[in-house]
Amino acid sequence: MKNILVTGGAGFIGSHLVRLLVNKYPNYNIINMDVLTYAGNLENLKDIEDKENYKFVKCDICDFEKVKKVFEEYEIDNVIHLAAESHVDRSIKDPFSFAQTNVMGTLSLLQAAKNYWQDNFEGKLFYHVSTDEVYGSLGEEGFFLETTAYDPHSPYSASKASSDHFVRAFQDTYQFPTVISNCSNNYGSYQFPEKLIPLFINNICNNKPLPVYGKGENVRDWLFVNDHARAIDVIFHKGKLGETYNIGGFNEWKNIDLIKVMIKTADRLLGRAPGTSDKLITYVTDRAGHDLRYAIDSTKLKEELGWEPSLQFEEGIEKTIKWYLENQDWLHNVTSGAYQSYYKEMYK
Ligand code: NAD
Ligand code: DAU
Predict the structure, then answer these.
(1) Pocket of ligand 2 contains residue 196 by CB under 6 Å
(2) So what's the pLDDT on residue 348?
(3) 120-160: per-residue pLDDT in tens?
């Protein structure tokens, strides 16, 4: 048996990872630590909540005393750390909460693990899940490599970069066993509709404007969330201590082109005439400090650990749109209440 602490397991990527681990490894106990912010939702894990090898613990990763108790109570062997404030636009409005959760929270977990493992690191691992945004922004050419220098621009990416530095500092200073992965943009089911893809699907369904930042020319590299969870599984089991792995699908899309694919697919699935929702496209003021282009080179992960994305984008986006259309209750639940005031404030 192994006792694995997954933080942020009630969020978008975390819930897919928890589901994968709980179902695939009955001999692992998966302890999901999440404070349930607006982005965390236990409904995301309804299908596995009664499994014997799954436990949920409501806990703020910044609460060092409580975190230490969780390590003791559940005899934690390994950590996969995903809990974070994750939305760039929110970080522009409230950078403090990003520094608090992403930097101080990560430090609290590192220190709690180090204390509990008492500097005996045999069989132990602290896996830190990070983002490609730490590398900054690319021009028309080139890719982010694991060796690309950090150059974060938003308060979100600065906080993630800082957390990565703390993880590496623990590795270098204490020979604390770590691994880091930096992934590109994820899409799929259970993503909170503040991010581009679920927000736009929801707005298409409700005939609401689609707020395209700037000219819609920014480029993102999209990966199906289940493929990210599969990559984390592979890196967790086969990754080398102290190493970093980039995760991405070699799947770049200019925002406006991606939006047109979403409109076309959603209109078809909703039984609307082709082009019906084109009129919803609304160009709005650009995001401050908007990174132009992200593109991940994940060759190292493929060549050293044998991981590749399993799904073509066209198939993934159709599956994703169908999921949101078929799960209107989920969308309704997460967009009632506080979501309405966020939306008004953000898109006024
Ligand atoms: P998310 O916002 O959907 O989920 C974050 C989860 O963390 C939520 O369940 C929330 O309740 C929890 N959380 C937040 N603050 C907490 C705290 N103080 N204590 C305990 N739990 C807390 O995020 P996501 O999109 O699933 O991203 C997960 C991780 O993956 C993040 O670290 C993010 O930086 C990284 N990442 C995300 C993407 C992406 O495209 N979404 C890409 C690369 C990396
Ligand atoms: O690259 C990985 C990162 O991807 C993760 O680390 C972050 O947690 C995740 O939020 C995501 O960041 P982005 O800022 O790239 O994702 P977002 O979905 O917010 O935006 C994608 C693109 O769409 C970006 O260029 C901004 C644009 N956009 C976004 C929103 C919400 C719009 O044009 N309009 C919008 O309303």
Answers:
(1) yes
(2) 79
(3) 999 999 999 999 999 999 999 999 999 999 999 999 999 99
Amino acid 85: pLDDT: 98
Active site residues: 132-133, 156
pLDDT level of residue 74 (50, 70, 90 thresholds): very high
> How many angstroms separate the CA atoms of 113 and 127, rounded?
11
What is the tens place of the pLDDT at every residue in 94-111?
A: 999 999 999 999 999 999
Q: Calculate Rg over the CA atoms of the chain.
A: 20
Collapsing DSSP to helix, strand or coil, 72 comes out as helix
Select from 3.40.50.720, 3.40.50.970, 3.30.750.24, 3.40.50.620 the CATH code of 2-190+221-251+288-311: 3.40.50.720
- Cα of 67 from ligand 2 centre, angstroms: 30
Rounded Cα gap, residues 67 and 33, in angstroms = 9
Which helix (H) or strand (E) covers residue 159, if one does?
A: helix 155-174
Decide: 15 in ligand 1 pocket, CB within 6 A: no
Q: Crossing angle for the helix pair 196-205 and 328-335, nearest 10 degrees?
A: 110
| Nearest ligand atom owner, CA of 246 | 1
CB of 195 sitting under 6 A from ligand 2:
yes
Residue 16 CA: which ligand is closest?
1
The pLDDT assigned to 339 comes to 84
